[in-house]
């Protein structure tokens, strides 16, 4: 004879199972694909792999990094935008695919604002304005004075047309009223070599690349290209605090999913990423790469940020005249 206690236990178990089915499957219940729209081995890829390892512990499933490079990040971004909106395909995006490319590329098949469900703004990598040691300027006002005294005599190197190191100079000219001349190179390495050799006078490059040359006295730091000073080199004043308030040219990093991803899954991923970012190993790794943490980790915060950055860079790209196919 079956006992009343056993029947009650069965009834409760069935009730719990029915409730679970009503709420849908547990998430995540299988591996998550973390798309990096750039080649393996670069700083974005390294950050993504650090995050993926930490996130695996938080969600209880494997988080697999998949590199889908090409067209400045557009190929990977387009693939994620077209993926099933179930939270199992997400992207570690940067300023290019999530803000600049919409205005820079003549053909782009996704929209950074409408094609994605933002999950979290991770942080940003500051750029810094550096000059060759021979340039007779040690701060922003002295550099602007040099340009005013002899317009179009100062050149700045970039890693290529449309790169943040190019657009940084366009924005600088617009805000400071200067006439810095752009010299594009095929990558940061060649640009840095000519800067060190004195073939060009300056560059807006990332702080991690510039740091050893600044410390060695081979380059002079004019200012950090963000609103606040960098934690990596706090002794260097920002361009904004030296007289160009609002000047901010950094590479930001954010995680997005395809538009239409269920809000509860976005919320769960957001919470997992926040916990991952608190881990000592992640914090130490990002600090070593010069990454500054975002102040707002909410999905809504990233939504607002992407909208603002997309609008800002449209104005700058239009002013530069740069267009890529």
Task: Write up this protein.
By secondary structure, this protein is an alpha/beta fold. It has 2 domains: 32-125 and 250-320, Bordetella uptake gene, domain 1 (D-Maltodextrin-Binding Protein, domain 2, 3-Layer(aba) Sandwich); 126-224, D-Maltodextrin-Binding Protein, domain 2. The chain is built from 11 helices and 10 strands. The chain has helices at residues 4-22, 43-59, 74-82, 95-104, 140-149, 164-176, 188-197, 207-215, 263-277, 280-288, 299-320, and strands at residues 32-36, 63-67, 89-94, 116-132, 155-158, 181-184, 202-206, 219-224, 250-258, 292-293. α6 links the parallel β5 and β6 (181-184). α2 crosses α9, α2 packs antiparallel against α10 and α4 runs parallel beside α11 (299-320). The radius of gyration is 23 Å and the shape is globular. Mean pLDDT is 92; it is low at 6-23.
SSE inventory with pairings:
Layout: H1 4-22, E1 32-36, H2 43-59, E2 63-67, H3 74-82, E3 89-94, H4 95-104, E4 116-132, H5 140-149, E5 155-158, H6 164-176, E6 181-184, H7 188-197, E7 202-206, H8 207-215, E8 219-224, E9 250-258, H9 263-277, H10 280-288, E10 292-293, H11 299-320
Parallel strand pairs: 1-2, 1-3, 5-6, 5-7
Antiparallel strand pairs: 3-9, 4-7, 4-8, 4-9, 4-10
Helix pairs in contact: 2-9, 2-10, 4-11
